[in-house]
Inverse folding.
């Protein structure tokens, strides 16, 4: 699949700081040392509805990760998937009487437009589940041959008990896992499983659903977790730097993915850090396609809101906190954007050298974007109150905000 166009990232004077980031697996902050090419996998959308502010907030967090890395003069190798065949997508297509491939293509196209408007850096590899199937089939076969997977009435399950590291990503106990598994696409109640938590690797063809010939597996389609594992191993290999997504992916998705990969390769870990963004809510509930309480990026754009203001709204909350999208969050961002634009529109101003370092330090410190915004607010306030004589300052502020926060002033 093709991704979306990249916006330029201006180079800043000096050098950025190494990223310290909260890792779900260790429960603490770790300093990543990625080497010259940092590797990141971010779980993509299931394209059955438009991009909402929760999605956008999560992708914003991982966009900041890349901007911090680029500022340290590293290259970034970024991979993202599109879950373009899965239960919710097929169910929505049936409900609305439309072709599931058309639904997936339309919503993926809209996602690309939203990401472009928000100036999110594109992945180098943007891979659909369907196009990954030829690579998924041999992985499922290998797991079965190795005794890490088993058949149940034509479906193939992964045996979580074959991975000694199972449970290390989420750190949850068995009961919590069981509850979340039932809530998030698993089937802990299905009789005949070795462990109720075992996830499906390959689902035998169901009547009326698309399927692919899987040689020894029989016609069917891939399970969710193996999709991301196949794509990540193919394009990044084991031990990449960050596996990213919203906090609802920590269990089961990232836990199971790590186990699949560890069982396949005999190596550990799958990713050096598992990084999770908080959930954005609306009216007291998590914003979700299944609940339907959504604020779409495209709808807000259609209302004439500058995408830069949407981006500032996302940046105004720390990526790890759960927060509520409100009209006020957006109104504050619109006002801030106008203030910042006025401040950089003058030819000179107070020195911005310290500001560059403040923004760098805030983002390197577990992507603390609210602190970064506060630093720019202070410079803009000083510009408004006293101005300054530094001729390069407004330009440097623009480039800093552009390079590190993805906002064009
Ligand atoms: N296709 C899978 C990942 S392989 C999937 O979870 N798709 S999704 O469309 O449901 O979600 C895409 C990303 O947005 C995931 O990282 C998910 O954790 C995140 N996300 C979904 N809802 C919210 C929300 N309300 N707040 C923050 N992030 C969210
Ligand atoms: Zn995923």
């Amino acid at each position: 699949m093709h991704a979306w166009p990249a916006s330029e990232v201006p180079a800043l004077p000096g050098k950025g700081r190494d990223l310290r980031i909260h890792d779900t697996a260790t429960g603490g902050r770790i300093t990543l040392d990625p080497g010259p090419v940092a590797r990141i996998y971010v779980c993509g959308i299931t394209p059955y509805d438009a991009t909402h502010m929760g999605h956008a907030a999560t992708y914003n967090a991982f966009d900041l990760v890349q901007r911090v890395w680029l500022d340290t003069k590293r290259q970034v190798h970024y991979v993202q998937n599109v879950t373009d065949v899965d239960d919710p997508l097929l169910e929505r297509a049936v409900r609305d009487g439309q072709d599931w491939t058309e639904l997936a293509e339309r919503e993926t196209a809209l996602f690309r437009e939203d990401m472009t408007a928000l100036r999110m850096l594109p992945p180098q590899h943007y891979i659909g589940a369907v196009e990954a199937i030829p690579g998924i089939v041999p992985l499922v076969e290998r797991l079965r041959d190795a005794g890490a997977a088993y058949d149940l009435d034509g479906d193939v399950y992964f045996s979580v008990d074959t991975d000694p590291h199972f449970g290390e990503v989420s750190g949850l106990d068995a009961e919590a896992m069981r509850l979340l598994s039932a809530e998030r696409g698993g089937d802990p109640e299905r009789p005949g499983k070795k462990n109720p938590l075992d996830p499906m690797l390959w689902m035998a063809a169901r009547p009326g659903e698309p399927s692919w010939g899987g040689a020894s597996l029989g016609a069917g389609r891939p399970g969710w977790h193996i999709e991301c594992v196949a794509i990540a191993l193919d394009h990044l290999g084991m031990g990449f730097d960050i596996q990213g997504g919203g906090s609802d992916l920590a269990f089961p998705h990232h836990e199971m993915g790590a186990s699949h990969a560890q069982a396949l390769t005999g190596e550990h870990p799958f990713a050096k850090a598992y990084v999770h963004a908080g959930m954005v809510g609306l009216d007291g509930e998590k914003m979700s396609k299944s609940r339907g309480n959504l604020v779409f990026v495209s709808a807000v754009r259609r209302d004439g809101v500058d995408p830069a203001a949407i981006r500032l709204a996302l940046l105004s909350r720390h990526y790890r906190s759960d927060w509520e999208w409100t009209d006020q969050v957006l109104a504050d961002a619109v006002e801030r954007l106008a203030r910042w634009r006025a401040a950089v529109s003058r030819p000179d101003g107070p020195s911005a050298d310290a500001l560059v370092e403040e923004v760098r330090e805030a983002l390197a410190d577990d992507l603390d974007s609210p602190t970064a915004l506060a630093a720019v607010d202070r410079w803009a306030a000083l510009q408004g109150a006293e101005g300054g004589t530094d001729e390069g300052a407004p330009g440097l502020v623009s480039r800093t905000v552009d390079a590190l926060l993805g906002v064009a002033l």
Q: What stands out?
A: The longest strand covers residues 75-82. The CA atoms of residues 134 and 284 lie 42 Å apart. The longest helix spans residues 53-71. The radius of gyration is 22 Å.
